[in-house]
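Protein in question passed on here:
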Amino acid sequence: MSKNARFLKICPLYKNHEIAVIIPALNEEEALALVLKDIPEFVDLILVIDNGSSDNTLSVAKKHGAKAVSEPQRGYGKACLTGLSVTGSEDITVFLDADFSDHPEEMALLLDPIIDDGVDLTIGSRVLGLSEPGSLNFVQIWGNGLACFLIRLFWGYRFTDLGPFRAINRERLNKLQMKDENFGWTVEMQAKAAAYKLTTRDVPVSYRNRIGVSKISGTLNGVIKAGTKIIWTIFYLRIATIAGYKDERN
C-alpha cells in the first residue's frame, strides 16, 4: 500500500486506534527517506516538521508520502508544538527523530502498553534496549542519567532515559500543556507526567548510530546548551509543583 494512501484513511487502524507520528527534521534529507520507509503501514498520519532546513528535507518528506510542514523558527520543541497544532483526532501521538537512529518498525512496542494496559506515556529506552557501540556518547549517558535521577528524587518516578522515540495518549498530552520550544521538550514531558501522576513505562528499544552529525551532542556548544536547559527545566517544574503547579512560561 502506498504511504500516500494513509491520508485517504484507507489504511487499517492499529487495534482500533488512530496513530499520528511527528518527526522534527533539520537538514536530514539523507536519513529521512530511510525513516519514512520503515514507519509501519498502520500509522494514519505522518508529519515531518521541517525546522528551517537548507537542504532537500522538505521535498524528501513529500516525495515519500509524509505531510510536510515548514516551521522556520529553530528549536526541537518548537517543531513538535507546530506538529501538534496540525494533527487531527488521532488517539495516540508518537514522536520520532529524523536521523535514522531509532527503529520506526519497533513502534508497536510503544503503542501496545498504551492500548492494552492503559499506560499514558511510553518512553523508548535506549538504556534498556540494544544500542550500537558509539550511538550514545558519555555525555549523553551521563546527562540522561542525571536528569532521570532528579525526576526520581523530586517526584518519585523512575525513568531510565530521555529517549526521543516515545508515544503518548493524546488526551493526556493535551493535559500537560507543553511549552518548551527547544532542548527541554523531552524532559518537560516526563517531569510534567510525573507531576500530574500519569502512568508511564520505559520500553526497551534498539538504537543505532545516526546518519550525519548531531546538532546537539555533535557540538560542544550544543551539549552545554542542552544540558543547561534540561537541568533548568527540571528545577523550574519542581518549584512549580511545590507552588501548586502552574507553568507560567510563554
